[in-house]
């Protein structure tokens, strides 16, 4: 059985978890306090980051590379379209969320509100929190624009792009930092993603000291 070293609210870990679950690959989850720099963990990934996946006799790091490996090794059900142009668009949107969205929103909200406390790094920086709360509005509006032109974020079928976005937004939703009333299109899109069997284990996550809001696991939120 595969084994994933992860942190529950890490969007990068969640993206890999969603890919594994969608492809029905059984996987043991091992919560890893990577910030403690455990020597055994550093041997698995000298970069000292999660996720780290053990599968097929290999130890893998970097979420984008892991998801590409899973797509090539376990192609069904597919999370990447067949055409070159469509695959580019999926990768572009995955990059948007894992880079721009993370730097402007996730790191400033989940990072400040949750990670600092868990890692004992002090109190949240109020300016970062305000910046993240302001920036998420822009990103939700961009998602709404995409969904006005497409059924899913990258096209007419669900792809890894949707899982990347949902991984970030679900982590933010855990701490009630998403205004779902800002866009009906985005809310409907998230409800569709949230109702998939692949999402069940994510909705069961619990972070000690941070109980999820009542709507978090509600499929009819």
List the quaternary state of the chains: single chain
Fraction of helical residues: 40-55%
Please provide the ordered H/E string of secondary-structure elements. Answer: EHEHEEHHHHHH
CATH C-level class of the domain at 84-196 is: Mainly Alpha
Strand order of the largest sheet: 2-1-3-4
Mean pLDDT: 96
Features:
alpha+beta; 8% strand; Glutathione S-transferase Yfyf (Class Pi), Chain A, domain 2; single chain; 221 residues; four-stranded mixed sheet
Characterize the structure shown.
Strands 2-1-3-4 form a 4-stranded mixed β-sheet, with helices on one face. The chain is globular. It has helices at 11-22, 39-44, 63-73, 84-118, 126-149, 160-174, 184-194, 200-203; strands spanning 2-6, 27-31, 52-55, 58-61. Helix content is 53%, strand content 8%. It contains 8 helices and 4 strands. The model has no long low-confidence stretch (mean pLDDT 96). The chain has 221 residues and is of the alpha+beta class. A hairpin with a 2-residue loop joins strand 3 and strand 4. Helix 1 (11-22) crosses helix 6, helix 4 (84-118) packs parallel to helix 6 (160-174) and helix 5 crosses helix 7. It has a domain at 84-196: Up-down Bundle (Glutathione S-transferase Yfyf (Class Pi), Chain A, domain 2), CATH 1.20.1050.10. One of its GO terms (molecular function) is glutathione transferase activity. It is an enzyme of class 2 (transferase). Keywords: Transferase. This is Glutathione S-transferase GstB. It comes from Roseovarius gaetbuli.
